[in-house]
Design brief:
This protein is an alpha/beta fold. It contains 12 helices and 10 strands. It has a 5-stranded mixed beta sheet. Strands 8-5-9 form a 3-stranded antiparallel beta sheet. Helix 4 links the parallel strand 1 and strand 2.
């Protein structure tokens, strides 16, 4: 009997060894199936695409007073960033802000003030923070072809003077209102200067470029505009505003939250606020930020 037991014991040992080896090579449940936390982390990572640094197509919404500068910035930026294309759309800052809130496709919003970008961010339509990129000053313009004999800003209050203004929500109007209030405190200005100025407003245009256009055509006697707008026109003369009464305008830019490419949008905004963009803005009379 003993000789027969040895082979049987050997078979048992081999089978036991095989079972032990098979069990060790099978993956454990923990290593085969990711945990809920790991799955959530992976999903979160995959749902956030990396910012692109290559060619992009961007739509830039810019204040009307920036039109000339943006028309020059477009080819400069596209040349510096091969494959990237910019589409420029300009209007009053308030109108553009409203359009973005209503779903108009835009990647960057460049405003002639700080109020509209902040409004966009506060309402959840802007990806802050807003970046200041330019400054401006105000001046009074009158048509060269049909002068009405205006020589100082005080003449804006003379009876019969037709003042062309912009809509109440347009940044230039808000700046102009502050300017008129400051002028009323200047020596030689009537105390009711603001009321007289308001009474002389003959029309309210959509944006500052429309104000300039009407003055150029002689459809108004004067208007308060940005110094850059006056510089860009050959058909108007400038009536300087006292520095003590002038109102500085700060331009802010912000990336639109619905932008299809935040990385490219931020890159353009940084470029505009950097040396290359600042050189273009300066050539149009925009002032550096102090």
């Amino acid at each position: 009997m003993r000789p027969r037991l040895a082979p049987l014991l050997a078979i048992v040992v081999v089978l036991a060894s095989a079972c032990t080896s098979g069990s060790g090579s099978s993956p454990s449940p923990a290593s085969a199936v990711p945990t809920a936390a790991a799955a959530s982390s992976a999903a979160s990572t995959s749902s956030t695409p990396p910012a692109r640094s290559g060619p992009a197509s961007l739509t830039i919404f810019g204040a009307a007073s920036l039109k000339g500068a943006l028309d020059k910035a477009k080819p400069a930026y596209e040349t510096a960033n091969p494959g990237t294309t910019l589409t420029i759309s300009t209007d009053s800052s308030s109108a553009l802000e409203t359009q973005i809130e209503q779903g108009a496709p835009a990647d960057v919003f460049l405003s002639a003030d700080t109020t509209n970008p902040k409004k966009l961010i506060d309402a959840g339509f802007g990806s802050g923070p807003a970046i200041p990129f330019a400054a401006n000053k105000l001046t009074v313009i009158a048509p060269i072809a049909k002068p009405a004999g205006l020589t100082t800003p005080a003449d804006l209050a003379k009876p019969g003077v037709k003042v062309i203004a912009a809509g109440d929500t347009v940044p230039i109007t808000k700046y102009a209102t502050r300017l008129v209030g400051n002028l009323a405190k200047e020596s030689g200005y009537p105390t009711d200067f603001a009321a007289r100025y308001t009474a002389n407003i003959a029309s309210k245009e959509d944006n500052v470029k429309a104000v300039v256009a009407k003055i150029e055509l002689g459809e108004g006697d004067a208007g308060v505009v940005y110094a850059t707008d006056a510089k860009a026109s050959t058909k108007v003369k400038t009536i300087d505003v006292p520095d003590s009464a002038n109102v500085p305008a700060t331009y802010d830019g912000v990336v639109v939250k619905a932008s299809h490419d935040h990385g490219a949008a931020q890159a353009f905004l940084s470029w505009l606020a950097g040396p290359s963009g600042q050189a273009i803005l300066a050539s149009f009379g925009f002032l550096p930020l102090s």
